[in-house]
Amino acid sequence: MVTTNTIAIAILIGLFITLMILKVPIAFSLSLSAFASAAYMGISLGAIAQQMVKGINSFSLLAIPFFILSGELMSAGGISDRLIKLADVMIGRMRGGLAMVNILASMFFGGISGSPVADTSSIGAMMIPMMEKQGYDKDYSINVTIASACQGVLIPPSHNMIIYASAVGGLSVGKMFMAGLVPGVLLGLALMVLSYIIAVKRNYPRGKKYSTKEAVKIGLDSFFGLLTAVIIILGVFTGIFTAIESAAVACVWAFIVTFFIYREIPFSHFGVILKKSLRTLAMVMSVIAASQGFGYMMTTLKIPTIISNALLGFTSDKIMLLLLINASLLVLGCIMDMAPLILITAPILLPVVTAMGMDPVQFGIVMMLNLSIGLLTPPVGTVLFVGCSIGGAKIEHIAKTMMPFYITMIVVLLLLTFVPAFSMTIPNLMFN
Questions:
Q1: DSSP letters of 29-48?
Q2: Distance between CA atoms of residues 71 and 115, nearest Å
Q3: What is the spatial distance between Cα 124 and Cα 141, in angstroms, rounded to a whole number?
Q4: pLDDT > 50? residue 361
Q5: CA–CA distance, 135 with 53 (Å, rounded to integer)
Q6: Burial class (CB in 10 A: 0-12, 13-18, 19+), 66
């Protein structure tokens, strides 16, 4: 028997999928489907609008604009070039050294920008042409660049972690930040091992050796940029700052470094940086607001309960259930961007995993890595698109050559899923 709720669910989900297929922006797709479903149910459209406003009226979200602005400041201020040189000093002499440099530079940059797209744009714009010039294959250069950019989702600061913490009901952002440190480094090490194996197999060149004097000079030059990440991580780790306070302090420090220490761009460029930051912030906050309206209708129609019961009814085996959840998120990541997926799926799946004894923080880290893989997969992989655009390669070709990197990232994902110690050791030591 078809009930009113069944039709409303069909309108909500069906219209959303249809609008997505028609390439309507995600914020409009979410809000329009929520309004249409509410109208059918006779729910006041004002109630949906109130939920949308309520969704962005959250104190924890205040960190997002600060992190976005500090990342844009450091991206424009010459930090990328300095991080690449520092990484080259540290590990560039290895076989396939430039690939290792690429991964390590992305690890450093991820601790500043927190954005895989910004990482790919800044690091990739220099590293991909540089690697090709040194004799590396184009597909390998792009593969390494876009895969390593996903470290920015795990290594603090990450505005996606803030979105997750808000979506699941006010989870500690500081706890999420600290939980991402080891997984971020683990992902980087795994990618380095894979890149080294491929480099040896293809006989890629070694990097040059730096003198002690050159190494010290490069280290000192990059120190002020790296200090941004140190401020964020140590500030939260020691309890001197909250996550929001560390974001504000990092923003001020990034401003000082960009315009008064490195001085690679004139102060007149600050307006351009502000506009770019505001554009990014508007996109993020509009998606958050629209997702709240969509989430309100899902809750009203009891969709989370229906899905949870279906998953728990499918199997009671913890391992199978976690594998099923990971597989579902990997598939969804191929067709939808990361932020809306976090906002939609986190409240649905969290009760399922917590019922099995998984900590919400651990699940958050698993979700971060899982959905970051979606940034590398067609048809909606934004990082894949940016990398291919910079490298001048076809998306379908790069997606095929990414297979070893996909497998490596999935292995790390499974480790984070089934070994809680990777993500929970540091937060448990700090917050318990």
A1: HHHHHHHHHHHHHT--HHHH
A2: 8
A3: 9
A4: yes
A5: 52
A6: buried
| Portion of the chain with pLDDT greater than 90, in percent | 23
How does DSSP assign 170-230, residue by residue? S--HHHHHHHTHHHHHHHHHHHHHHHHHHHHHHTPPB-PPPPHHHHHHHHHHHHHHHHHHH
Which residues fall within 8 angstroms of residue 154, CB to CB, at 6 or more apart? 110, 180, 183, 184, 187, 365, 368, 369, 372
319: tokens are 């391992």
Q: Which residues pair with 206 in a beta bridge?
A: 95
Residue carrying the six token digits 């876009």 = 146
In three-state secondary structure terms, 341 is helix
What are the C-alpha distances in Å from 339 to residues 164, 386, 394? 8, 18, 26
Residue-wise pLDDT tens digits, 304-324 = 778 777 777 777 788 999 999
Nearest alpha carbon to residue 402 among 416, 388, 417: 388
* 57 three-class SS: coil
Let me know: does 82 contact 222? Beta carbons within 8 Å: yes
Burial class from Cβ neighbours inside 10 Å (0-12, 13-18, 19+) for residue 212 reads exposed
Token pair listed for 302: 């009891």
Query: What's the longest Cα–Cα distance across the chain?
Result: 79
Rounded Cα–Cα distance for residues 39 and 15 (Å) = 13
**DSSP run (H or E) holding 380:** none
Looking at this protein, which amino acid is placed at residue 345? Answer: T
Strands (E), 101-239: none
- Residue 99 tokens read as 């690939």
Residue 186's CB: how many other CB atoms inside 10 A?
18
Which of 51, 48, 42 is CA-nearest to residue 4?
A: 42
pLDDT at 431 over 60: yes
Query: Phi, psi (5° rounding) for residue 227?
Result: -65, -25
Quick one: tokens of 367? 């979700």
